[in-house]
Amino acid sequence: MSGAEPSLCPPIRAAVVTLSDKASVGLRADASGPRLAQLLRDLGAQVGDPVVIPDDQALIERTLADLADSGAVDLILTTGGTGMAPRDRTPEATLAVADRLAPGLAEAMRAASLAVTPRAMLSRAVSAVRKQTLIVNMPGSPKACGEHFAVIAPVLGHAVETLRGEAFECASTERPS
Q1: CB–CB of 17/67 below 8 Å?
Q2: Could you report the per-residue pLDDT of 123-175, keeping only the tens digit for each?
Q3: Domain-wise residue ranges, the chain
Q4: CA separation for the pair 125, 102 (Å, rounded)
Q5: 13-171: which CATH topology?
């Protein structure tokens, strides 16, 4: 068994939100958002272009809530704003809109990252659920995004199926070609 998860009945509908003051005004290219979007596509998810907004907690909260409340996405991956800089407010914004926590994802990403760098201890990333949408905070660098995504990718399908209430129906059904 490869450890890879079987395809979902309907694919994961995902959104990527990049939090960056500089990228939001064109002073820096967003590399992490497109990286995450491609990783999601490689997993078979439906995802559009990343949304890029500044590190403004109220705007982050509105963006996450609007995406989750729309019913159009099952998964939101954020990138950036999880460190200790004064404007890093992504975890606080995520917690402010969360209905429930899903701490295992962030814990697993931190644990795996700790094997790469002791700076992993400084991550304040969180993972949570709003309505039927899973929100996961990812780091701001493309390399770290790839490493963290690899940690959670094997469980994303089951998490989404569970949130949809389809875990048993989809787990035993092959998706038609």
Answers
A1: yes
A2: 999 999 999 999 999 999 999 999 999 999 999 999 999 999 986 666 543 33
A3: 13-171
A4: 11
A5: Molybdenum Cofactor Biosythetic Enzyme; Chain A (3.40.980)
Strands 75-79 and 133-138: parallel
Structure tokens at 128: 């949570």
- Tens of pLDDT, residue by residue over 86-105, are 999 999 999 999 999 999 99
Residue with tokens 């500044």: 54
**C-beta of residue 134 within 8 angstroms of C-beta of residue 127:** yes
Cα–Cα distance measured from residue 172 to residue 2, given in angstroms and rounded to the nearest whole number: 17
The whole-angstrom separation of Cα 99 and Cα 65 is 11
What residue has token string 């129906």?
A: 169
Kindly report the pTM of this predicted structure: 0.90
